[in-house]
């Protein structure tokens, strides 16, 4: 099923978030479910020169890379038909025009086993994108995140909030890529920890 089909044929639309959408959707939704999609791994391989960085120091944000053995945890939001158009318009600016993402339809599996799987719209940035940065070591990615800030805030906040979501909502999941970059970042700062007030001075 193509993205436009899932939008036009349904009375409600599910949108899957795996980056900043897990803590900051900023669109109207009816309910949310924590869960995962199969066949993709989350990686800090996409550049961001607006929300979490700028032209001189692009930040690093996550995208999805196809991997049949992997799964990615996040949140699916149900958007009713009455809010569908405005929500998609908002996301098309946030994710497509400014973020460089395209859309795909994926199968979402809720964490609660009693709930059945569902189709969800997801935004993915590919290597074809001009601000795509690609692979780098955990240390290199952490160093880039440590010095990047954009219109939405510091790149550090993005990383820490995503790690916090995983620990609180999916404590049984070991996201090695995410947590390894977080560990490398914490070594950059004195004391090995960053508070919200410290973020403001970065």
UniProtKB/TrEMBL annotation:
One of its GO terms (biological process) is glutathione catabolic process. It catalyses: glutathione = L-cysteinylglycine + 5-oxo-L-proline. It holds the Pfam family ChaC. It comes from the Eukaryota. Keywords: Lyase. It is an enzyme of class 4 (lyase). Catalyzes the cleavage of glutathione into 5-oxo-L-proline and a Cys-Gly dipeptide. Acts specifically on glutathione, but not on other gamma-glutamyl peptides. This is Gamma-glutamylcyclotransferase. It comes from Cyprinodon variegatus.
């Amino acid at each position: 099923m193509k993205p436009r089909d899932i939008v036009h044929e349904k009375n409600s639309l599910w949108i899957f978030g795996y980056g900043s959408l897990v803590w900051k959707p900023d669109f109207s939704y009816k309910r949310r479910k924590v869960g995962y999609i199969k066949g993709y791994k989350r990686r800090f391989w996409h550049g961001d020169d607006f929300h979490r960085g700028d032209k001189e120091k692009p930040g690093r944000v996550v995208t999805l890379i196809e991997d049949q053995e992997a799964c990615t945890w996040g949140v699916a939001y149900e958007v009713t038909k009455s809010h569908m158009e405005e929500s998609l318009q908002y996301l098309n600016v946030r994710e497509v025009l400014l973020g460089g993402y395209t859309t795909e339809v994926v199968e979402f599996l809720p964490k609660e086993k009693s709930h059945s799987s569902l189709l969800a719209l997801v935004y993915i940035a590919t290597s074809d994108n001009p601000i795509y940065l690609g692979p780098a070591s955990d240390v290199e990615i952490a160093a880039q995140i440590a010095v990047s800030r954009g219109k939405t805030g510091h790149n550090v906040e993005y990383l820490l909030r995503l790690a916090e979501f995983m620990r609180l909502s999916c404590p049984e999941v070991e996201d090695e890529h995410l947590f390894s970059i977080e560990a490398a970042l914490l070594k950059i700062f004195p004391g090995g920890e960053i508070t919200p007030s410290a973020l403001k001075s970065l």
